[in-house]
Amino acid sequence: MCIRDSRVHGEMSTGQESNKLPPELTEVVRGKTLRTKFVMILILAELAVILLYGFFCQYQGIMANNAALDSFAESAINLIYPFYQDVHVMMFIGFGFLMTYLRTNCWTAIGINFMIGAFAIQVYVLWKGLLDNTWSGIWAKIPVDVNMLMNCDFAVSTVLISYGGILGKVSPYQMIVITIFEVFFYALNENVVYKSLQVIDLGGSLTRHAFGGYFGIILSWIISPTKGHVTSKTHSTYNSNLFAMIGTLFLWMFWPSFNAGTASGSAQHRAIVNTVLSLSSGCISAFVASSLFRGGRFNMEDILNATLAGGVAMGINGELVQQPWVALLIGFFCGFISSIGFTYIGPFFAKHLRIYDTAGIHHLHGMPGVAGGFISAMVVAGLTASDLGQDPSLYFPKRRDNPTQAWVQVAATGVSVGIAVVGGIFTGLLLKIPIFKQKFALFDDNQFWHIDEMDSDEESEEEAVSYTHLRAHETGRNLVCRLLLEKKKNK
Prior knowledge:
This protein has 491 residues and is mainly alpha-helical. The protein contains 17 helices and two strands. A two-stranded parallel ribbon has the order 1-2.
């Protein structure tokens, strides 16, 4: 959440030259550009999705009214749906509340998080089915079942991660466009990494976190202006950080399901235990690093984010790590480097590279995701037959030996980052096309929501008179007279 530092960051724009609009353009922008474009693209997109589902999607056989298949359907529900519920909570409560720290952008953060999450679920089914058919060379209808829904939520997580990097700087209309294309690049990366390279990445350290993180910061780099202005809107408040902590706690508690939801047997068991240990150790190191780097006091930015870094790195290592002390060490290391990112790397990016990473996704998702990829290569290289209960070549895809699979892990790390960068550049340049440009005040809920309470609260604050100077000897009448005089004098 580096954007909160008003010394470096300010109000930027996605295609607009100035954050403050001339009064005569305000109604035009809000009434026509923001409303009409958004309504049109969302209606057309949803109608297109419904039409495409009608032609290309169908329920799996286990969902048909067939008594012989009921046991298989019941098994899928019992094994997958509990994990799916946990991941669903992470997407819409965890990510949603984590992004509410900006004091004037809370409604937009959690509301647009909700909208693009629901939209990405639908879009992923189509892109994934299209790419799977392309990969296999066999054209068939896209199966929709609980397994697909779990994978849909993983795609949602990638979009929401990227949204953190551009939070407050894009309109709902632009987020619909971003979601459509990012989900495509995400599904493409999935097929390259899982089907072609056959990497071991159970919890998506590479495909979700590293990809989403670098897609988001590249996109932010492209759409942000050369210079920004200092603004109080990029600050958090005591209460906004408190709400954001709700998101952090939900993510922290349910992260083991995110990493282990698609596994089974002993691999799932290891992934759950390793993730809990890594998160616990990462939480401790985040508090240590925050106190160490922030002058002896904790910084809420570090605690909201770096405490989760251990879960990010354990996504790819969850099933691979065979000893609990290794899981603790990975978590401690990633919590520490994440805190370094929020303290030093974020301000450096903003000042020297013009990368305005609103929510610090590079330090929470990008860096720990890439670190997890390289750590997994070292873990794979050190695995023995006694660790796995079988020869490693029987455990790795294509009967690879340890060094070969280790290099595959490294290569997949580079491929995921590379596709994310290409996808971010493409989408960022797309947003610069006139039809996708929009002018609006950044980091401001009033641009997109009816907030009468905020308006009235601000007015009452301006007219309020402080009663903190009550003197012990004053009577009620004297107090009223003095306050009236002070108010008149201030005017």
